[in-house]
Structure formats: C-alpha cells, structure tokens
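Progress against Task 2.4 (sequence-to-structure conversion) is shown through the following example record, which the project officer requested during the mid-term review.
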Amino acid sequence: MRRRLDPILVLALGLGAPGAIAGVDPLLEDAPAPRQDKHYSTRPSQRQPAPPPLVMPPPRVEVVVPMRPAPRPWPPRPWPRPWPPRR
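Structure tokens generated for the chain above:
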C-alpha cells in the first residue's frame, strides 16, 4: 500500500514542492508490520538473571560555609572610674 505525503510535510522535510522533482510525485512505502508472535510462553524464562547494575556511590562533597569570626572580648573596664568621682 502506498500513501501520499502531505504537501506541507514534503515542504517541511525539504524535499521541494510536490511534483517538482522531474515530475515525480513523492510517495512513501509503508514499513512492514512488526511480527506478531502467535502465542507467548507461560513458562518462566530460563535465562540467568542479569547481574545487578554497578552503582557508583555519590561523590562526597564538602560544603564550606563561611562563618563570622568570634566576637572580640570587650576591653577591660577602667577601675576606678576616672570620672565623675564617686561620693
């Protein structure tokens, strides 16, 4: 069975205007239908189970968070107070 291509599709595929190539109308062959198995076996598969996939451990990522420096201690309080004089 042959099927005519849509003219817009022909232009989109870059095949030129339909019928412009030496007067040949672009036609597409239908692909053969995939083979249909008549019946499927109900017996379990005799194949060996596939080995487990090799899973790489996730890479270790060290996250460095910038931290504020420790607060500096207050300077020592002057003692006795120089001013005002205590009474």
